[in-house]
Amino acid sequence: MKYVKWLFVVLFVCSFISFVDKDKVTGGWNVGDKAPIFMLPAKDGNQALSLKDLRGEYVLLSFWAGYDAPSRMSNLRLCQALRDLDKRSVRMVSVSFDKYASVFAETVREDGIDPAVCFVDVKGEASGIFKKYRLKKGFRNYLLNDKGVIIAKDVTAENISEYLP
Known about the structure:
alpha/beta, two-stranded antiparallel ribbon
C-alpha cells in the first residue's frame, strides 16, 4: 500500500511536468533569431543568390515541395498575395525540396508562380538548407526584416501585410 501511494505521487508529478512548455515552439527557428545564411545556385544565366546579399530588404523565405499539398498551397497563396502588395516592400525567395527538377518546373508552371523567385534543391531532406532551417517537423516560411532577423514565421497570405513596413 505504501508503494501505491508513491506511485500516484510520481504519476501526478510526471503528468504535471508533461504540460510544461507545451506552447514553446520547437523545430525551425523562432522570431527574433537571425536567419541562417545560405546560397542558392545560379539558374538561367543569372548569378547565384545569397541570402546575405538580400540584407537591406524584407525577405519572405518559403520552403515547400510539390508532393506536400499544404506547403505548396501556402507558397502559391503567398506568391499571389505578394503580387497584390507593393513589390518593393518584400522579396520572395521560394525554395522547393522536390527531388526532381522536372517535377519542380512543372509545379511552378502549373501553379503560375513567377519562376524568377523559385528555386529547387534536388537534395530534398538531405539538403544543407533543409538541415540549416531544421525543417524536419514540416515545411514553413519565414519573414525576415532588412537586417536578416526573423520577424514572423508561418505567415499566411491573409496576414503578411501586418508585418511589413
